[in-house]
Amino acid sequence: MPTTLPTPERGDEVSWVVACLGHLVEDEVTASPSIRGGQIAADAALVALDVAGYASRRNEVLPRSRRGATMLSPYIRHGLLTLGEVWSATAGAADRDRAKFTDELLWQEYARHLYARLGRGLAEPIRFDPTPLGATPDVIDDPWATDMACVRLAIGELERDGWLVNQTRMWLASHWSVRHGADWRTGEERFFTHLLDGSRAANRTGWQWTIGAGTGKRYGFTRWQVTKRAPGLCETCPHHTACPIETWPDDVHLQSVTGDAGLRRFEDPSVVGGPRRTMVSGAADAVWITAESLGDRDPALTAHPELPVMFVFDEPLLARLRLSGKRLVFLAECLADLATRRTLEVRLGDPAKELADQRLATTFAPVPGNARLRDVLEIVELHPWPWLRRPTSGPVTSFSAWRNATR
Ligand SMILES: Cc1cc2nc3c(=O)[nH]c(=O)nc-3n(C[C@H](O)[C@H](O)[C@H](O)COP(=O)(O)OP(=O)(O)OC[C@H]3O[C@@H](n4cnc5c(N)ncnc54)[C@H](O)[C@@H]3O)c2cc1C
Q: How far is the CA of 108 from the centre of ligand 1 (A)?
């Protein structure tokens, strides 16, 4: 028996999550006060996009008015905005700002390529073992359980807003693993629980690069960055006169690891890249949308304005992940918004069972979970993923090697 949920309605998403998904969250269900889900909100953010000053202000933390970050990441992560659309929207910007911004879009694309190729392998250090030989870090269970003002600021934003600027992501990741030697995968899970843009691709890549597993160079977090990026914050800190991060973490040599052979070469890039053209083997009776592609411009959705749309909350997966309620509210906001324009059916359960009796049109998504479901579902129409750069068989060992290979 399918478990069909009532369709979420705009303005009522928090109580909808409490009623329908409350048993699957790890905290009190609230909406992010900073970012709202849905195509209307995503399009408004894109229209307002202005990258003037981005190159010099991308890393600013405080005051908030100086931040150059665009906060587009949740919309990009869930496919409401494609990287190509965002790239094009900066066409008139100054060269320096545009170059820096589009470079970051490429980092997002690189992370997607890495994850598509390595899958769960991205949870293993890809090139260097981040645990330094012979080093004795000050290991503590929860390095973020501190009253240091810099860490409290970042954790507060993570847990309240479900979003952080890149700079404070690096502070937290470095404080966790580089200074205190805590397992990076546990820290990565904590991020994933809360971030509205949380993706295994970009989150694991971000952690690997911060802790040195990607390049052999670790990002050291000290008072210096706080003073530079958040002037005035240290003065509010109880540790102002005896800062525990006054000095740099030890400069250590990281051992290289063999790494997955797929990093250097991947014989059949179409396995991770998906089809170049729509593949049709029959008539679809519904469009299946996923968390990778929740926008109105999803290719399968636009190809079939007449068909009902289906979305399944993967109950076994969510029971395992125990995400923050904010993440599910963001998804509910996307669905409630879509439901004002399309006939939408929302289900809860194992997607393989919930969709078993359907002939589906869908869009390829470059994540392992999507591949597993495509294998068991009746997909009669598969649309191409809107890559910024299509995967090749060339190396993904580093960002620059990948960029050259996909040019
Ligand atoms: C430890 C760590 C964890 C991270 N986890 C995630 C994550 O789960 N999901 C996620 O989307 N990003 C992640 N990032 C990357 C980056 O921090 C965020 O994409 C960015 O802060 C989002 O804010 P923004 O939209 O204002 O970015 P902007 O600076 O305005 O950049 C525009 C877009 O470019 C992309 N982008 C920017 N910087 C990066 C980057 N370093 N890597 C990949 N893509 C980037 C994002 O899609 C972003 O929306 C992580 C970085 C680190 C260091």
A: 7
How would you list the strands of the sheet with 4-5, edge to edge?
4-5, 344-349, 309-314, 286-288, 360-363, 379-383, 279-280
Is the Cβ atom of 167 under 6 angstroms away from ligand 1? Answer: no
| Cα–ligand 1 centroid distance for 357 (angstroms) | 38
Distance CA 87, CA 321 (A): 32
For every residue of 193-215, DSSP letters joined together read: HH-TT--HHHHHHHHHHHTTTTT
Nearest CA to ligand 1 atom 2: 206
Are 15 and 352 in contact, with CB atoms under 8 Å apart? Answer: no
pTM of the model: 0.98
**Could you give the domains of the chain?**
4-11+268-383 (3.40.50.620), 33-120 (1.25.40.80), 125-259 (1.10.579.10)
Q: Is the CB of 293 under 6 A from ligand 1?
A: no
**Residue ranges of the chain with pLDDT lower than 50?**
none
